[in-house]
Input
Amino acid sequence: MKDGRISADPTVYINIGSKYEAGDAPAGCENWFTMVNVPYDSGQDWDQLIPIVRKNVLEKLSRMLQTDVESLIENESILDPRTIQSKTSSHLGALYGTASNDQKAAFLRHPNFSKRIKGLYFCGGSVHPGGGIPLCLLSAKIVDQEIAATYGA
Ligand SMILES: Cc1cc2nc3c(=O)[nH]c(=O)nc-3n(C[C@H](O)[C@H](O)[C@H](O)COP(=O)(O)OP(=O)(O)OC[C@H]3O[C@@H](n4cnc5c(N)ncnc54)[C@H](O)[C@@H]3O)c2cc1C
Output
């Protein structure tokens, strides 16, 4: 991903919500949310990349599950970094803020406060300490403590 390309053998994340809430899918069906990590949008030709990634993912799942997964799909929609940006305002379609792939990344994350506007604070996945629910909650705690320390509890 460093050079803006996508692995031909990506790690695949699958969440099947209907395993927990049967009503989230029609009777006898499942709702699969399938995700692979890709680079942020730096002008790649996503329309050309999507069918390649889709094929790689389906081949991998079919091989691992020993089932022809594609033939079971009745309905699908695909989000890519362009549509993630347009639907969620996430900069360049990045889910976790700035890349955390190099050793200095942890020190370069956006701080929890604005250096330009006094009293403006940030918490969430794209700022310190990082993405994922536990770190997002930690960032909310940091902001809470900062505000309490500055303005009183
Ligand atoms: C597919 C996927 C799977 C994940 N799995 C895990 C996992 O298993 N464990 C884990 O710890 N983390 C996981 N994460 C990461 C985790 O979900 C995120 O890091 C976290 O949700 C980020 O929290 P946030 O509050 O920064 O942003 P969000 O959760 O995105 O919340 C931002 C909110 O702001 C709202 N919003 C946006 N713009 C506006 C506006 N202009 N006005 C008002 N509201 C607005 C949005 O609708 C949204 O509700 C996953 C992420 C993805 C995408």
Observations:
- The two ends are 43 Å apart (CA to CA).
- The mean pLDDT is 93.
- The chain has two domains: 12-93, 105-151.
- The pocket of flavin-adenine dinucleotide is lined by residues 35, 89, 95, 124-125, 131-134, 136 (CB under 6 Å).
